[in-house]
């Protein structure tokens, strides 16, 4: 079954965007194989602001999302009109249930690209299997957080099993953690996420 992976770039202090929504502080690293990364996923789920940011990245040569089947791009938005974005799946309600149904299907994983509101809803619903963060060596001090504040009535903190961590030459730290409900400890190989090699 497909895994829902919240894969995102973040600052060292936990922001995915500056206060104005920009992310020009992200570091380009030529050692990251984005073509291979995109091939790990069948579906790309995001909120409206993330989608609008992705549209600004240019055409197929610069924006790998343009090379994916449009029907596999799912945008959660109350303001975008489907007729303005033919082929894209735009959901104004029942987004979490739609993602739950995607996870019950077959195929490759589902990339939860952002934003933090959608990621928080999915985490609350127990749908996030892994959080994969490219941590940039920069401190913003303010902006859009990796996650929205979670109600204090919920089980906090959300504990994850560390699945991997790697420092790139650019200074980016690639790290991933798995939701413990979907994880187990393999005595020989360390933390594993069910269904992920």
Automatic annotation (TrEMBL):
EC number(s) on file: 1.1.1.302
InterPro entries, sorted: DHFR-like_dom_sf, RibDG_C, Riboflavin_Biosynth_HTPR
A GO term, aspect molecular function: 5-amino-6-(5-phosphoribosylamino)uracil reductase activity
Lineage top rank: taxon: Eukaryota
Domain Bacterial bifunctional deaminase-reductase C-terminal: 2-173
Gene Ontology BP term (one): riboflavin biosynthetic process
UniProt entry keywords in alphabetical sequence: Riboflavin biosynthesis
Broad EC category: oxidoreductase
Pfam family, one: RibD_C
Catalytic activity: 2,5-diamino-6-(1-D-ribitylamino)pyrimidin-4(3H)-one 5'-phosphate + NAD(+) = 2,5-diamino-6-(1-D-ribosylamino)pyrimidin-4(3H)-one 5'-phosphate + NADH + H(+); 2,5-diamino-6-(1-D-ribitylamino)pyrimidin-4(3H)-one 5'-phosphate + NADP(+) = 2,5-diamino-6-(1-D-ribosylamino)pyrimidin-4(3H)-one 5'-phosphate + NADPH + H(+)
Role, per record: Catalyzes an early step in riboflavin biosynthesis, the NADPH-dependent reduction of the ribose side chain of 2,5-diamino-6-ribosylamino-4(3H)-pyrimidinone 5'-phosphate, yielding 2,5-diamino-6-ribitylamino-4(3H)-pyrimidinone 5'-phosphate.
Similarity annotation: Belongs to the HTP reductase family.
Identification of the protein by name: 2,5-diamino-6-ribosylamino-4(3H)-pyrimidinone 5'-phosphate reductase
Species assigned in the record: Fusarium oligoseptatum
